[in-house]
Amino acid sequence: MKTISIRLEDHVYDELDEMLGEMGQSKQSFYETYTKTALRERSIPFVVCAPRKDEALPKKEKMEAFQRLERLRLSAEGVLDYEKERANATEEKYKDFS
Fold first, then answer.
1. 3-state class percentages of the chain: helix first, strand second, coil last, to nearest 5
2. Where along the chain do its domains lie?
3. Cα separation of 72 and 67, whole Å?
4. What pLDDT, in 10s, does the model give residues 7-64?
5. For a tag site, which of 21, 38, 40, 78 has the least CB within 10 Å?
6. What does the pLDDT look like over 64-78, one tens digit per residue?
């Protein structure tokens, strides 16, 4: 396993830390996910968004969503259908707006 070091402006680092906290992610998991997806898809493949502060999910709901994803990841045998998972996540995210 290799270690990388990234230099960021203090305000960028702090803002990233806050946003990832709202998403229930660590900086390490963010960079690992981003890198693996970019390598698999051979492009910068996705847009990751955090809810605006006034739209943020309660911490309990964020943890439940993270735990569902983690159970899915750990139970996956073989390749996940990322398009299907993305569609399901999008549907769940916007179900109250339809």
1. 65, 0, 35
2. 1-50, 57-98
3. 9
4. 999 999 999 999 898 888 899 988 988 888 888 888 876 666 666 666 666 777 777 8
5. 78
6. 877 887 787 777 766
